[in-house]
Amino acid sequence: MSETTLNLKLPMLAAAQAQKHVTHNDALAVLDALIHLSVSSKSEVNPPVAPNDGSRHIVPEGGTGAWAGNGGCVACWHSGDWRFHAPRTGWLAWVEDEGKFVAWQENGWMDLPGAFDQLGVNATPGEDNRLAVGGVASLFDGEDAGHNLKVNKGAAGETASIIFQTGYSGRAELGLLGSDDFTIKVSDSGATWLPVVSVNVTNGKVGLGRTPGAGQLDVEGGIRSLSGAAPFLQLINNGPNGTQAWIGIPDWNRSAFYIYGAQADIMSVFDTPTRSHRLFAGGSERIRIASGGEVGVGTANPTARLHVAGPVRMATYLKAALPSAASVGAGTLAYVSDAAGGAQFAYSDGAQWLKMRDGNPV
After folding, report:
1. Are 331 and 291 found together in one domain?
2. Reading across the β-sheet that carries 169-177, which strands appear in turn?
3. Beta-carbon neighbour count of residue 317 at 10 Å?
4. What is the count of structural domains for the chain?
5. Any idea what DSSP says for residue 290?
6. pLDDT for 194-253, tens place per residue?
7. What is the spatial distance between Cα 329 and Cα 323, in angstroms, rounded to a whole number?
8. Cα separation of 263 and 284, whole Å?
9. Model-level pTM?
10. DSSP class of 140
11. pLDDT-flagged residues of the chain (< 70)
12. For the chain, first and last CA: distance in Å?
């Protein structure tokens, strides 16, 4: 029978052995030295002059004095003498003066690997998820500086993304999805995905619900703005001679398109209560299109299909310059300066121009 155990080389009691307590206590001393192993150093080549009882060190190659020839061993000061324990593969030790763990491998004490094939923190990793973390939150802390979380891919056609799931079924994904353009997609099943936002990496143009187009922002579908205080769309030309335009619902409860934002600069208004369209110039209403289709010029209450509050002037034509009566259609009016019998109004009957005075051709 072996006199020591296979791994820690603890002395074993022999049959009918006298003073068994000596062997037993010696085994306990070895256990005390090696279990939860923490050493003062693994780089000091000279034994300490006055070591404390139980002091432990990893002897480096080239150890001197009592440590000579015991490179790699764990040296423990016990009862006034150094005892040396040869490490086995997989032993771990905390090195106090370096603040790190080391592990014994065939070629010596090595720092714990900086890279693992798989790592699980309260979760089980796998080939697809090499790093798995289970818990209510994860913190990546830059402390007093910044912090970057990097997701890299090997080629433009590959994917580098972050996926958000419900019950391990995808619901949203953002990142570089099959190209170098930044994309956000959503899904209600994890199988069919809808594009939400796409940003062209070359020019920064943005597409909502579609790939970016010619404009800085291209939208597939309608745009809805909700606000409790005068929602608006503001358009600004910030060039040297630029101006700005607003489209919105001002505080006076009308849909409007106006410049500079002042009520006096309104260009057009859709009047919600009367359902009429009003065109402005110079700060005053000039044309109104009523809800029934009546058009008023200079009047806010048109009573005919065209109601003009003021004189009306038509273009003046020479007979030779009149447009084709057939092309303008019957009922069209024109002022002819060289009509037979003197300048006068003429009308088209759909075939020719006739004078207003007598109905004869111009």
Report:
1. no
2. 159-166, 169-177, 182-186, 194-199, 206-208, 217-219
3. 18
4. 4
5. -
6. 999 999 999 999 999 999 999 999 999 988 888 777 777 777 777 787 777 767 766 555
7. 10
8. 10
9. 0.56
10. -
11. 1-34, 114-115, 246, 249-266
12. 139
Class of residue 269 by CB neighbours under 10 A (exposed 0-12, middle 13-18, buried 19+): buried
**Tokens coding 297:** 């010029």
Q: Among 223, 241, 264, where does a domain finish? A: 223
Which tens digit of pLDDT belongs to each residue from 136-175?
999 999 999 999 999 999 999 999 999 999 999 999 999 9
Measuring CA to CA, how many Å separate 260 from each of 113, 242, 263?
65, 11, 9
C-alpha neighbours within 13 Å on the C-beta side of residue 12: 11
Q: At 346, which amino acid appears?
A: A
CA distances from 282 to 93, 163, 267, 279 (A): 87, 55, 9, 10
Helices (H), the chain: 20-34, 325-328
Q: Are 199 and 210 in contact (CB under 8 A)?
A: no
Other beta carbons within 10 Å of 348: 21
DSSP per-residue string spanning 162-195: EEEEETTEEEEEEEEESSSSEEEEE-SSSSS-EE
Residue 21 counted as domain residue:
no
Domain match, 95 and 70 both = yes
Please state the φ and ψ torsions of residue 65, each to the nearest 5 degrees: 55, -130
Q: What is the DSSP letter of 11?
A: B
Give, in degrees to the nearest 5, the angle at Cα 277 between 262 and 285.
Answer: 50
**Residue range of the domain that includes 348:** 316-355
CA torsion sign for 102, 116, 164, 204 is positive
